[in-house]
Amino acid sequence: MPARLTIRRRPDVRSARQAGGLRVAALGTAFVALLVPALSACGGSASSAAGSATLKWASSYFPSHWDPVVGGSGAQFRELALVYASLTRTDEEGKAVPDLAESWEYNEKGDLITFHVRPGLKFSDGEPVDGAAVKAAIARAQKQKNSALFGDLTSIGSVEADGLDATLHLTQVDYQIPQLLGERVLQIASPKAAGNPTKLDQDPVGAGPFVIDQLIPGTKAVLRKNPDYWDAKNIHIDNVELVSAPDASTVVSGLQTGVYNFADLDPSQATAAEKAGLDVFSQPGFNASNISLNVNKAPFDDDRVVDALRHAVNRKEFVDKLTFGHGETTDQPFPKGYVAYDSESENAYPYDPAKSKKLLAEAGHKPGDIKLNLVIPAEDPQAEIVQSQLAAVGVKVTIKIDKNWATPFFAKDLAFSLYSTTGRDSAVQTLTAHFGPDGPLNLSTPYEPDGFKEAVAKVRRTPLDASDYPQVLQAATRAGLESKALIFTFSSPNLFAKNKALSDLPKNPAHIDWTGVKIAAGS
């Protein structure tokens, strides 16, 4: 599958500092010279003992929450996966394969699925990993007051635990469950530790490949290999030092000097990293950015205005200016080559400013008549591109920054905004998040396009290995793309850099998997 699915209840947007980093000049060498030793000093710990293989990871998405129920399934799930494991994981083809569950099966009707947990597993606090732990994790994700995942689990009615088995009684036939319950949506914490969710949020206890030794909230986490992880024999990293990445312009220097040996990379720094002799690579993913419209509010209650905006968007400009050529244009939430991508819908609204102006005129709007407030959570160069492109067709856009943007966005009070997502392992979940009547990314709730509900239900009823599954899924994508609530623009890359001592990572779409990864001795 080519490079480039999970939504979350909060935006997958970087801070103003990071977004603005595209235009920040490199720091002076004197400052960098001072910074690197300082970071080296604060990074020193027992985990860096001689002879150990230590991953030193600078992350732009350092978790603000370590309770996976609260953290949701945005970009931070990759870091949380150091500590937590899930029932399933994703392979290089994007398919669900065993993780904590060694196998599973559906009943004949497709409305009940039983997961069989591997025997002998335990959480890092010694509690057993079993059917009861799975049941508790699902219940917490569905019912905990601050859960960011409850909307993802609507197909699960009740759960029965019997020893190592967890049987899920579904509210509808749904063959997407194994795809859904991976590390994005159901990272499983110790039920004992989760009895105090506030403590768990900064003292995580899971059954993943590593165990937390030290955690400085928002700044640094020191972890060691979990000898009780079910696949510990294939984890060759002894220790992990995870730090919150400094300004994008300093990451390359940190990689060069050994402060880090792995980092997510801002596209603006890719060329510098390559010139420094680092390995720069793009991990497959499902990222998609869009312009969100509320069709329940003027002027977007007129289809001609919506279509005019579609034709006013030059997607290539987003790619060139924001990803430095590393991203891709997109007009749907899936990448080309992925099973859910609908080729019939490709380029349905090509860039055509003249047609955009004509549609606005037909709707009775003269140039300058339409004035819009584009509300976003932080400074974002995407907004400036949207402002410029719409100005070219006679629509005046004023950018409004509201750090509490999430409240009106999810309350569906805004008329016009931006959103970026990392997708979902379950294609159906991505579709319903964007186009469903209760979808968190659907600013036009409760609106949904005609035929979408039926098309999605048909996908759920179709086993993943059925011969007609691709066609059924693509038909649901096609129905969703009839929505007037979103205009997809571009896909930013999952771009990383590492030093050459670190071996290549598995190409699991959107995930960071440390299985089999090695660090050369003495590095």
Write up this protein.
Residues 96-423 form the Solute-binding protein family domain. Keywords: Signal, Transport. This is ABC transporter substrate-binding protein. Pfam families: SBP_bac_5 (PF00496). The structure is a single chain. By secondary structure, the protein is α+β, with helices and mostly antiparallel strands. It has helices spanning 16-19, 29-43, 68-71, 77-80, 131-143, 177-180, 191-194, 197-200, 248-257, 270-275, 303-312, 315-322, 353-362, 381-391, 406-410, 427-435, 452-460, 469-480, and strands at 54-59, 85-86, 88-90, 96-98, 101-106, 112-117, 156-162, 165-170, 187-188, 210-216, 220-225, 239-244, 262-264, 279-283, 288-293, 328-329, 371-376, 396-401, 416-421, 486-488, 490-491, 494-498. The protein has a seven-stranded mixed beta sheet. A hairpin with a 3-residue loop joins strand 10 (210-216) and strand 11. The longest helix has 15 residues, at 29-43. The two termini are 32 Å apart.
